[in-house]
């Protein structure tokens, strides 16, 4: 019998204490940096009504004002507070990114497990996924908006459809390797029902890769939403969004640069936080990736 010893610095499951957090932060700084920054952005977005003004309030006498104590980022071409619009715009970007990541992950998980475990449906499902991956997100969003009308829900659906196939392919590849392992074959030979095999043996093996891919989907969805809103195919113009703000203020960049820099910097910081979290999760679940880098 071969004994496998755990790493010396491993933390036993179920015994994680607050005093262990500094050591875990040193071992996995990207997870804590990305997760902490993303959590801070979410808190600031949710608490926006408590400290930010009305993002829709227009004052023609305060058009294109420079930053001041009353308006930290100045005002746009309609006299609206850029700081308030930037903070409330974080709600749209985070909601679209997180909702799209959750929707694509759930769909990809269910379809990927079905395709990877059942060989009869594998070829059919993957050909459908290949077809969906070939659909440009921007063209799909424009088509849906022209047929149904603008809205956040339509935007989320338009981004989720092209993103779900990548999650499906990842989950399928994991399931293809896991289903041939001895403990899965032993469970099947022992008479375990299919739902139990999937729940206890297949699903846990897909979670680490799914979490990393979900972070990538979230970052991609945030950028896609900003790009579609910049083109006028995203959220309605009256809703504060970073893409809308950059689009409407790009002509005034030389006069009031903060009207473009504020949403642009916030967009970059948000995507950076999500990407840091994704890279940290990859190193956390696959230490070989960190050694290769």
Could you estimate the helical fraction of the residues in percent? over 70%
Strand-pairing-aware structural class = mainly alpha
Total domain count: 1
CATH topology: MetI-like fold
Overall number of strands: 0
Assembly category: single chain
Count of DSSP-assigned helices: 12
CATH class equals: Mainly Alpha
Average pLDDT level: 79
Radius of gyration: 23 Å
Main sheet summary: none
Q: Per DSSP, what share of the residues sits in E-state strands of 2 or more residues?
A: under 5%
Q: Can you name the CATH architecture?
A: Orthogonal Bundle
Shape: elongated
CATH superfamily membership: MetI-like
Distance between the termini: 35 Å
Poorly predicted sequence stretches spanning 5 or more consecutive residues: 1-20
Order of helices and strands: HHHHHHHHHHHH
What would you say this structure looks like, in words?
With 293 residues, the protein is mostly helical. Helix 4 packs antiparallel against helix 5 (119-133) and helix 7 (152-178) packs antiparallel against helix 9. The model is unreliable at 1-20 (pLDDT under 50). It is elongated and about 75 Å long. It has 12 helices and no strands. The longest helix is centred in the last third of the chain and has 38 residues, at 194-231. The relative contact order is 0.15.
